């Protein structure tokens, strides 16, 4: 373990990371967002979703530095008296859970189908890639809206809130898998004609084992880049769905839900209810995207 850590700190990847101030800053911002969301139950000043602790008298309190602000609520409160800072921490948890889960689901589906298409070729490749082409002609958010609507219509109304989180994860994941499939398929087409794959075939290694044990490790690099960039898009897609009112239920509000709630009061002067969750969402997505851009350049041998 110690040797592996030492090799990592001596690698070109770590050297590239430390030589990019923007990447280091992005990593710090992303780490703060993740830790704040992960430890929200312990570090958040309040539990904004504990109905017993809410007081409508505290509603619409401005940030602490405003004239009528209260030090107890640093970023102010919303229309129900919930602490905006605490709501952002808890909301970021939901956004990250959906974003990471949807990205993992899209990665699994896309990598599996991309490996199969690239290695098998022929009609399998043609059918899978035509499905990708058709799906890529539609914006991902429209595909997610369609899948979400069909799923909700097919299931009983009384279970909607219980499975809403899983429906959103599935809807976003199933709308993003073609990106992974096309990336892996292109890399697999290159790898399948190399000598080590031909040698494995000659000695009778099963095709499934060749794909998983030999081809997959050599296409992981591009997959990591796509996954990192797709994480930011998945978080943004979840925020969009929640803003439109078809995402997670009100009992599990994400950053998109908080922005939608605050949008109703934006022009009446309570700007902090929507601005601060919006800033948190921008910081989270932008930091992840910048890390993805760095990783893409760092793993590109032509740029070394």
UniProtKB/TrEMBL annotation:
The chain crosses the membrane at residues 21-44, 94-120, 215-236, 271-295. GO terms for cellular component: plasma membrane. InterPro entries: BP-dependent_transpt_permease (IPR050366), MetI-like (IPR000515), MetI-like_sf (IPR035906), OppC_N (IPR025966). Residues 92-292 form the ABC transmembrane type-1 domain. It is a multi-pass membrane protein. SUPFAM superfamilies: MetI-like. The keyword Transport applies. GO terms for biological process: transmembrane transport. It is found in: Cell membrane. Belongs to the binding-protein-dependent transport system permease family. This is ABC transporter permease. It comes from Neoroseomonas soli.
